[in-house]
Amino acid sequence: MTKDYSKIYNEMQDENFILSYKGQVGFVQINSLLKIIEDRLTTAETNPRTRKKVYNIATECYQNLSHHLEKHSQEIGTKGLAVFEAYEDKYVIATGNYVFKESEMKIREKIDFINSLDKEQLREYHRKMLDNDNFSEKGTAGLGFIDIARKTEGNIKYEFHHLSDELAFFTLKVEIIRENKNIN
Predict the structure, then answer these.
(1) Domain that holds residue 87
(2) Domain contains 1
(3) Is residue 88 part of a domain?
(4) CATH number of the domain that residue 138 is part of
(5) Rg of the chain's alpha carbons, rounded to an integer?
(6) Angle at Cα 129 formed by Cα 124 and Cα 130, nearest 5°?
(7) Cβ contacts of residue 148 below 8 Å, gap of 6+?
(8) Could you say which DSSP state residue 100 is in?
(9) What is the pLDDT of residue 120?
(10) 93 pLDDT more than 90
C-alpha cells in the first residue's frame, strides 16, 4: 500500500504547519530547527517583541525536549518530535517524545505545580530555583518549564498517550498570542 503524500501535504497546509520534524534531537538539530523558525519569523512577523518571544520559547521547548529524552533506553531511543505552527492570532510550538512511567509522574507533578502558580508566584519560584543552585543531572536546574510558563503567560498544555503500562508518548504544547494579526 502506498501513502498519499499529497494528502499529508494538504493536511499540513490546512493546519498552518511551518515546521514538522521527527528524529534525533541534539545541538545541531535544535540549531537547524531554530534557524527555520527565525527565518519564518523574520518574513512573517512584523512585531519584534513577538518575534523575540516566539524564538525564545521555541528555544526553551526544543532544548527541554533534548534534555528530557530517555537517553539511556535502547527500547525507545532518543528521537523526538518538534512542530511549529503559525495562525492569524497565535503561534503554536509542540514537542513530543517517549517517556517511561517514572518520568511521566515527575513531569506531571512539575507542570501541574507550575500551572497552579499565578504570575507573581511563578516569578518567585523562578527566583528560588535560581538561588538554590540545584542543577539536575542534565545541568538544567529545572528551569525549562518555569521559563516557558513565564513567557507564555498561560498554562503549559500536555498529554500522555499510553502505549503500554511502562511507556507513554509525552506531548508538550504552548501557544503564543500574536500582538499583531498579519501573517505574510
Answers:
(1) 9-177
(2) no
(3) yes
(4) 3.30.565.10
(5) 17
(6) 95
(7) 57, 60, 61, 64, 156, 174
(8) E
(9) 93
(10) yes
Amino acid at 166: E
Per residue in 132-184, pLDDT tens? Answer: 765 555 555 568 899 899 988 777 999 999 988 988 889 999 999 987 654 44
Which grid coordinates belong to 15?
493546519
Q: Grid coordinates representing 115?
A: 500551572
Q: CB–CB of 168/97 below 8 Å?
A: no
- Whether 183 is in a domain gets the answer no
Enter the C-alpha cell of residue 41: 519569523
pLDDT > 70 fraction of the chain, expressed in percent and rounded: 84
112 has a pLDDT exceeding 90: yes
φ, ψ of residue 13 to 5 degrees: the values are -65, -45
Contact 69, 25 (CB under 8 A): yes
Q: How many domains does the chain have?
A: 1
Question: What is the Cα–Cα distance from 100 to 147, expressed in whole angstroms?
Answer: 24
